[in-house]
Amino acid sequence: MRGWITDCHPSEDGLGVVVWIRGSEGHLRLGFPLRPSFFVSGEGLPALSRDLEGCGATTGMRRARTRLGGPLEDVLMVSVDGFQSMARMARAVDRWGGHRAYELYNVDLTPAQRFMLPRGLFPFGLLEHDGALRAIDSPQRINYPVPPLRALRLELSTGTPFDPLPGEEIRSLKLDGEPLEGDEEGMLRRLSDEIESRDPDVLLVERGDKGRTAHLLERAEDLGLELSLGRDRGVRCGGPKSYHSYGRTVYKPPALKLNGRIHLDTASFMYSEGGLPGLIELSRLSGMPLQDLSRLSPGSAISAMQSDHALRGGHLLRWKKNLPEDFKTLSHLVACDRGGMIHQPRPGVHEDVVGMDFSSMYPSIISRFNISPETLECGCCPRSESVVPGIGYRICRRRRGLLPEVIGPVVERRRALKAMARRDPLRAESCLQRSSLLKWILVTCFGYTGYRNARFGRIECHEAITAYGRDIMLRASETAAEMGFKVLHGIVDSLWLQGGGDPERFAEAVTAEHGIPLETEGRYRWVVFLPNLHNGAGALNRYYGLFEDGGIKMRGIAARKRDCVRLVRDFQTEALDILSAAEGREGMEGLLPQVISLLGERVEALRQGAAGAEELTVLRRISRPLGAYRRFNDGRAAAELMAAHGREPRPGQSVAYIIRDSSAKAAADKVSIPWLWDGVYDAERYAEMLLRGGEELLAPLGWDRERLRRVTGGRSDGNAHQCRIA
User: Fold this and answer.
1) DSSP label at 648?
2) Which of 9, 70, 143, 202 has its CA 20 to 30 A from that of 161?
3) What is the pLDDT at residue 716?
4) Greater confidence, 367 or 623?
5) Closest by alpha carbon to 6, among 276, 253, 275?
6) Over the range 215-233, which residues count as b (16 or more CB within 10 Å of their CB) and which as e?
7) Which CATH architecture has domain 330-556?
8) Residue ranges of the alpha helices (H) in 290-427?
9) Nearest-CA neighbor of 723 among 698, 676, 687, 690?
């Protein structure tokens, strides 16, 4: 038969893997024994081998010679009896060597990697099966066949509009939009029958990993029903995790994976960006099963792609990264640690502006200039003529680095998919979904070069990429001035130009000079660069503008933010719709009375009790455990109420609440959980949010918050003014 691998996971006993294959006529479950191995290099390998012989978890050892980034070296291959023993044995060997004597490799490979890579297989790659599995596909193909997957969309709701509370009854169930009839038990029985009869390959559940799928299984168990969502009984479920990343606390919910079926949370970032076509694309390229991939970040996906490429090239993967930052003089550090090129914008309204972007600038720099941890300051090219501008790092001329080998094809692949979308309207949607996830891979690959835990990261690579980027942007700015433009704003890979130059001729000249496509994003009738909230200087990433085709682009304002209340989002959206009728600053000033009148109407409606729960609900991320809060703010009050109802939020999770009285000292008086709300809200606190949203848009036109407060009759005493919904 021919088919595609849709999943690969450890067997229940941990002694092998289970492979699920989707053929044209159905699915197939295959089991394979697998004894995982890891490798050890260092002094004293014969003694280590003798020590390991007495360990019950090891099933075999043999010496081998391989390359670990240089000449051939002796290594010891250690096989263990199952996946559960791998990490325990690796930690023991590392400890015996005092965490210095031995280097360990291939310890943290996934079961899917261990099974598929030696056989040349990959997820969703076409294969033949006649007792053995043989790939007849390549992950580099762009026009590839995909399996005829059957998807089933499941929606459930309880008494609360958000994630269900423990023990809460399921009030409605829908399959592909069609409601199931009956009480809770009847709906769950019908669900079981429908899954068995329809036999879907993919189960789509909104917020499935955030509690809804688990709640479904728990309610079935409470009612004594047998509900199996997968083709095999049982589920694979990890634990929740909170961690700190890039200045914020992130919560990762438990990943609930089915056996034999693909369970996808449609609210997850990866699915919402790429859908099934995008996930299949990335699964093929990274070698990661789709269920695993959908629950990871783009950074984890690019790391998997790099690992996959290295392993297929015969390299071993170091277990613990051991590549510290090079020592630098203070002057060298100042030269290196500078980030991207920036032209500070002048706050205000600017007319007849052209926006231009470099296409995949940083990934293209990695590919074009051969930037990789092993190619910077390599030992084989001490006189290399490829020198990073401004900081002097020399780049290898004899071999292509790992990062360019992985990133270069992705850059070209994304360009090819975008071209296919333009040529073939029937495939445009799937091509754009595939391209969307590749975009996030390319966005992430740069950041991962400077991420301390990235397996293939090295801070010098990060510095080299930004140095090339600064050089390209500076030279492009000089070319713009020579061709009759004024640079209004520039940041990292984008320029906003004003003047009488020819944008197309400018783009062609810069592209030809640097080998990285410069594209015209669009021509603005006007663009408003907003001031920094603290010092009044031009903010780098806060602006809104009107394209010639009537489209509005906005960045950094409240309406674009996830935690913005709908009240403010709706006002800013409608205000921008009003301003979009203007051709320039003079027209905008003529429309200001309409915008200010709109703001006044919204403030007055608030005070009359005309706002509903959806407009007033605030969403805030909890950054620490409940007991660690020192200040009694709104977020803490909401977390206390959630905890009182059996749902204490973990760090990184978000809480939803409505502000009842911002000055109150008791949690239940200060805020309310939306589904328990009694209709009382702090009108002046929400009015202040509206005024802040108005100031954000109109400050460059001379309207600050105090002036807006005066004309809208706003209170300035800061006292709470409670309203009950009319």
Assistant:
1) P
2) 202
3) 45
4) 367
5) 276
6) bbbebbeeeeeeebbbbee
7) Alpha-Beta Complex (3.90)
8) 290-293, 298-312, 330-336, 361-368, 402-423
9) 687
Closest to 321 in 3D by CA, of 444, 441, 459: 459
Among residues 398, 517, 363, 431, the alpha carbon closest in space to that of 143 is found at 431
Strand partners of residue 498: 353, 486
| Distance in angstroms (rounded) separating the CA atoms of residues 460 and 450 | 8
Residue type, 443: V
Tokens 């709706």 correspond to 570
Query: Taking the model in full, what pTM does it have?
Result: 0.89
The predicted-structure confidence for 605-636, as pLDDT tens digits, reads as follows: 999 999 999 999 999 988 888 888 888 999 99
Rounded distance, CA 224 to CA 229, Å? 16
Helix (H, G, I), strand (E, B) or coil at 646: coil
Token representation of residue 326:
């090079």
CA dihedral 57, 58, 59, 65 (to 10 degrees): 160
pLDDT tens string 466-501: 999 999 999 999 999 999 999 999 999 999 999 989
The token pair at 602 is: 């919204």
What is the C-alpha end-to-end distance of the chain, expressed in Å? 66
C-alpha closest to that of 364 among 432, 423, 421, 413:
413
The Cβ-side half-sphere exposure at 191, using a 13 Å CA radius, reads 31
The number of beta carbons lying within 10 Å of the beta carbon of residue 622 is 23
What is the structure's pLDDT at 718? 44
Residue that the structure tokens 């978000």 belong to? 654
The answer to whether 243 touches 252, Cβ cutoff 8 Å, is yes
Contacts for 520 with CB less than 8 Å, ≥ 6 apart: 354, 355, 356, 503, 504, 507
- In this structure, whether the domain defined by 151-265 belongs to CATH 3.40.50.360 is answered with no
Choose the weakest-confidence range: 61-70, 353-362, 646-655.
Answer: 61-70
In the predicted structure, residue 680 carries a pLDDT above the cut 50? yes
Rounded distance between C-alpha atoms, residue 332 and residue 416, angstroms: 40
**Annotated domain spans of the chain:** 37-108, 151-265, 330-556, 559-724
- Which CATH number applies to 37-108? 3.30.70.1970
| Sign, Cα dihedral of 256, 259, 264, 268 | positive
Rounded Cα gap, residues 645 and 650, in angstroms: 14
Which DSSP string do the residues of 250-266 spell out, in sequence order? EEEPPPEEESSSEEEET
pLDDT average, residue stretch 543-566: 93
Task: State the CB neighbour count (10 A cutoff) for residue 316.
Answer: 22
Q: What is the 3-state secondary structure (H, E, C) of 649-698?
A: CCCCCEEEEEECCCCCCCHHHHEECHHHCCCEEEHHHHHHHHHHHHHHHH
Residues 35, 79 contacting (CB under 8 angstroms) = yes
- Nearest CA to 679 out of 626, 630, 610 is that of 610
Q: Which of 468, 420, 462, 103 is nearest to 281 (CA)?
A: 420
Kindly tell me the burial class for residue 97, based on how many C-beta atoms sit within 10 Å of its own C-beta (0-12, 13-18, 19 or more): middle
478 C-beta neighbours (distance < 10 Å), count? 11
* Closest C-alpha to 407, from 378, 372, 454, 451: 372
CA 599, 602, 606, 612 dihedral sign is: negative
Closest CA to 675 of 204, 101, 161, 42: 161
Fold topology of 559-724: Topoisomerase I; Chain A, domain 4 (1.10.132)
Report the interhelical angle of 585-607 vs 705-712 (nearest 10°): 60
Distance CA 628, CA 645 (A): 19
- Torsional class of 304: left (φ above 0), alpha (ψ -120 to 50), beta (otherwise): alpha
Report the interhelical angle of 566-579 vs 585-607 (nearest 10°): 150
What kind and span of H or E run contains 86?
Answer: helix 83-96
Q: Count Cβ atoms within 10 A of the Cβ of residue 607 and give its class: 0-12 exposed, 13-18 middle, 19 or more buried.
A: middle
